[in-house]
Design goal:
Layout lengths: L2 H16 L3 E6 L2 H4 L18 H4 L2 H6 L1 H17 L4 H15 L5 E6 L5 H5 L4 E3 L2 E8 L10 E2 L19 E5 L8 H13 L2 E5 L10 H8 L3 E6 L11 E4 L2 H16 L3
Parallel strand pairs: 1-2, 1-7, 2-3, 7-8, 8-9
Antiparallel strand pairs: 4-5, 4-6
Helix pairs in contact: 1-10, 6-10, 8-9
The structure holds ligand BJW.
The site of ligand BJW has 34 residues, from α2 and β8.
Length: 265
Amino acid sequence: MSIEELADLIKEAANIIVNSEVVISFTGAGISAESGIPTFRGSGGLWENYRVEDVASPEGFKKNPKLVWEFYLERRKKIAKAKPNPGHLALAELEKIFEETGENRKFYVITQNIDNLHKEAGNKNVIELHGNIWYTRCSNPACENSKPFLDKKMEYEELPPRCDICGSYLRPHVVWFNEPLPQDAINDAFALASEADAVIVVGTSGVVFPAAYIPYIAKERGGKVIEINIEPSAITKISDVFIMGKAGIVLPEIVKRVKELIGVE
Ligand code: BJW
């Protein structure tokens, strides 16, 4: 792609955003890659070193809860050192711009990531579809502690840790395969997708459902799909604007252009 072609795509994306009332950004692991957090699939991804069914399924947790906790504590350590990158910061700026440019304008981030970096970047309208690594809950659904609680521990005295109310194993507050997504989060996300004039899809392979339905819902209801990824994904076939590049480079360029178009400093 030439520099001119890239500039045209950025202008096209910015035009769509400026002319939209409701915009959502649907993000995946790729947006946090430039913060030093590994993605899941592909070369260097987490699934190269771990079997997904061992560490990200209820069956895996039942079989070896210690291994699952070791996997998540390693990730907590890595995420604790990470900071929001220019891609996260650009989406936070976009939310502010939407807040300031019209009562009916709405901007939401709907993320599959558990790393909390969108909130750290300053986004307030964030829907977390797959949980949050800084929360823990009791694995016994009947226990009071099955409601997620903030937990920044990197080490526990015993692994797997046990609930101090009922003695069952504690578990990370994340969504594994074959588990339902938090009902409110997925309902709100689907509702926003159906009213979105545009969805900015960033750094996701788009293969994990039901999350990956989001851009399809938006598209079906007439919303435009803008996608940013370093390579084509499962969603690219429905993208109106596909910009091949790193989120931390492309998103700030789009936001810069949005500001020029609406005359904001
Ligand atoms: C860059 C970049 C840069 C790199 N800039 N880009 C319908 C059809 C088919 C299957 C199903 C279906 N419905 C349900 C299923 C089954 C299953 C599923 O989807 N399976 C498919 C994989 C086959 N889904 C489920 O099981 C879900 N639950 C469910 O459906 O429950 C039903 C139920 C109802 C009632 C009772 C019981 C059950 C749950 C899915 C949970 C997924 N969990 C994980 C782990 C979360 C916790 C954790 O983080 O550990 O979520 S798996 C993992 O994948 C994680 C991610 O959020 C998710 C998506 O990955 P993501 O973000 O797309 O990352 P990558 O690595 O795949 O891609 C990174 C991308 O970034 C790449 O494209 C790069 O090119 C790009 N990139 N650097 C821009 N700098």
